[in-house]
Amino acid sequence: MQEKSFFSRVTKYATVGGSDPHENRLTEAFAALLEQVPGLTLELVRGWLDQQARDPWCDETWTANTATTSAAEKLAELSSDERREIQTQRLLRPSGKVRYVDIEIRLGQVRVRVEVKHGAGLGDGQIEAYAEDGKVPVVILAPEDQLPFVPAAKSCPHVPQRSWQATIQKIEQFRDLDHEGRENGRKPLGEVDLWMINEFLKFAKEEGIMAAPPLSQENTDALSKWREVSDAEESFNEMVTIGVNHAAKLWGKKKEAKSSPGLKVIPSWEHFPLYSEDFLIAPKHS
Predict the structure, then answer these.
(1) Do the Cβ atoms of 252 and 272 come closer than 8 Å?
(2) What is the DSSP letter of 19?
(3) What is the pLDDT of residues 83-116, one digit of tens each?
(4) What is the value of pTM for the model shown?
(5) Cα–Cα–Cα angle for 152, 154, 157, rounded to 5 degrees
(6) Cα angle, residue 110 at apex, residues 169 and 22 outer, rounded to 5°
(7) Could you write out the DSSP letters of every residue in 97-123?
């Protein structure tokens, strides 16, 4: 299969009029990244199919079947992904119905299909068709606010649902590890590979699918102060409520003062004799 150029992929789906095919555009940009950067595809797919790897942004559990277990074992034996093939919009005709797989990845003898989500939902029977009765590993890749897809989890419990947030975090770790020096003997990433990763991360941020950055110490301190003020305000409100309830028991229920045009209605206890002394308002003693 002939590899597509970077520009062919990223310019394939443009905004026309009021139509913005952002999901297809994200798919092509991600596919371009996987094609370009050596080692990244293998790293990501291994993580997706690792049943022990938990996604912090999706707590949906899944159970590996024969296909996913076999694929994970074969991926563990691969030393590189130099022979990777990335195909988008892979045509399928299950039971005569035309369907298109967003991304099909081939790593040696392993084939994995990825359903990319970015706002749109899943179609009826879509994941079941891609899995071909559980024979082909399928991964659902979506933003955290869309996960989990409960119907898919029930009908296809062997399909892992992974978040874009966790995947992008993995891409960042892959890039940063390269700067620190690899211990596995792989060649360091080239300038073009690093440029591709950084540009995709910028694109992911524009699309709103990156994890929120960790709070700085300044932000953490400000949040702590805000909580202290909030707690103090809550305590004050509780004291005011206790005071109002106590006043109501002593003086009776408050009534609304008559309002004049432009003046706000002020609650008071006008029916009970009050007097002012030392700037305090208190019931008058006999």
Answers:
(1) yes
(2) B
(3) 899 999 999 987 778 899 999 999 999 999 999 9
(4) 0.71
(5) 85
(6) 45
(7) --EEEEEEEEETTEEEEEEE-SS--PP
